[in-house]
Amino acid sequence: MSHKMATPAKPAGNYRWGICAMLFCVITINYIDRQVIGVLKPVIEDDLGWSEVDYANIVTAFQASYAVGLLLVGRWLDKVGTRKGLAIALALWSLAACFHAAARSVLAFVLARLMLGLAEAAAYPGAVKSVAEWFPRRERALGVGILNAGANVGVVLTPIIAIGIAGAYGWQAAFLATGAVGFVVLWGWLRFFRSPAEHPSVTDEERAWITQDGEDVAGKPLGWQQALGQRQTWYFVAGKFFTDPVWYLFLFWLPDFFKTTQGMDLFPKAESGILSTIGPALIGVYLLADIGAIAGGWLSSHLIGRGWTVNRARKATLFGAALLAVPMVGVADVASPLTAVLLIGLGTAAHQAFSSNIFAMISDLYPRRAVATVAGIGGAAGAVGGMLIAQATGWTLELTGSYTPIVIYAGLAYLIAFAVIQALVPRMEPARMVGE
């Protein structure tokens, strides 16, 4: 698997970017469905009388099933293919999202989150595998960056949709409405997605562009034992384990963080300024995250196009993102809501830039037939990290009422992850597959 980048002719056709837009929609609804509970936490908590530990346990249930799901779906997707696999997963997680509306106890919410996490686990491994199937190496980080931006758009849309519907019809209606949107996305997925070799809208020139790296797609999917015996897998495991907890922290606790540290309200008041309410603050944070996702993916792809090695381009982008996250260490103590939004927004931008590149690195190190398996194993490690941060946050808030210890970790996590990644894959040699 050579990393030397030739300069093939520009393709006649851009259908692959339409596929990327479809993957963007899949990730967007995936994040809307998982984040509704975080946005509406203050309302549901008041209605049902949750404690901080109750909520932490509900979040942990999602993370636990998500971790288990990621271990299972990677190899499953590599076997059944992305079209069928993501269609099944999308249908199941949309049903699970709707089931939240019927929950009235902590146990019922735990069960709904278990089903949601298990089904949603297929989204990222399937999307990243699709990018590896539809894009040459030089474009993959940008492709992953665009679909990663769907996570941020989902988080931006969630407060707009969930708060608006909950304010008018109650929090149960918000879960029903967002779950129903998933079935619309499912229709689009089945209507428009095929593999490049089978798709009638792909020209021969674009097909040649997609396959320009000459990667072998034949052979058996990667086994867990083989994957776990290779340091190329462990770079992704480490990257996800250290950094995903930061994303999950903000996904499930950011509305509460703004309420606790900045005194923001969930629903707007006529006399209040724009940053006195949680919705605009979340939108600001995740718009910055969108910029980070696309900019991080574009930067390493651009550097590769300028002649940088894949290793140098990916690592430079990762290190820059890690430095961008450091100012978050003091965000719990700032007095200005605008400063808090900007610092967390820089952190989420850093996360998405970092994430886009470590996902793209999977297909730098492994053939396409192994991408979902490695993505699933690493995603499971990230979900375990998410379980740990959920418990740490719940108990820290219950005992101290302070977010300070948690955000200190958030600011330093990316430098820790970068150091481990550099130690594991200093030159990014491709993994050897069975039979090679």
TrEMBL record:
Membrane topology annotation: Multi-pass membrane protein
Compartments where found: Membrane
Entry GO CC: membrane
Superkingdom of origin organism: Bacteria
InterPro entries: MFS, MFS_dom, MFS_Na/Anion_cotransporter, MFS_trans_sf
Segments crossing the lipid bilayer: 12-32, 55-73, 85-103, 109-128, 140-163, 169-190, 234-254, 274-295, 316-332, 338-359, 371-394, 406-425
Key words, A-Z: Membrane, Transmembrane, Transmembrane helix
MF GO annotations: hexuronate transmembrane transporter activity
Domain Major facilitator superfamily (MFS) profile stretches: 19-429
The protein's name: MFS transporter
Organism the protein comes from: Alteraurantiacibacter buctensis
